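User: Quick one: structure for sequence A, then sequence B.

Assistant: Sequence A:
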Amino acid sequence: MERVGSSPTLGTLIFYMKSLDLHKKRYEEAKILVSTFIENNIDNLPVEIITGNSVDMRKIVLDIVNKHNLSANPRTFYNLGALKIDNKS
């Protein structure tokens, strides 16, 4: 889990986001892991899925996210290999 939400001027707001790291996973294994991870955490969004720089891995995650009618955005704009999965706004 990753610590999120610290601000020196606004005080500290901390919550932990569950994370799934797909590094060194095969595509078929990733499909199962992502589906299971999302289904198990659907009531605990947002979550983070780390795809790394693989375009194919990112597509697998985005296809599953869309199937669940969720949104996926880069966790940060300087690291596009981590996606924050959340409900559509």
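Sequence B:
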Amino acid sequence: MNTRNYSQLSLFSPGSAGKEQPAAHFDGATYEPAKDGARLAAQLLAVHRFMADGQWHGLADIASALDIPEQSASARLRDLRKARNGSRWVNRRRVSGGYFEYRLERGTRPTETQHL
């Protein structure tokens, strides 16, 4: 696991007109805030910063670069999409078979009403 200290960092999107995003929130049947909160928040911040380059990345690439399990990289991408974590627009494309790549787009994902 990456030992960098993320305790002073927050999810901050340079494209958000200087506004800080809400603190990360996690849940689930096995989630224990005292044991998991800091670790998951650090992973979320690391994934957000890694993906901020706007390039396409596979889960293995994200996991390897950040020294986290692929399952954690996938879960943090899902967390970035959640409204309580900023509703980030994480785009996905199929490369081949069951292999996908992901890219963090600027802004939030358009809603269906925005397409009308």
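DSSP finds four helices and three strands in the chain. The helical segments are 33-51, 59-66, 70-81, 112-115.

User: Thanks, that's what I needed.
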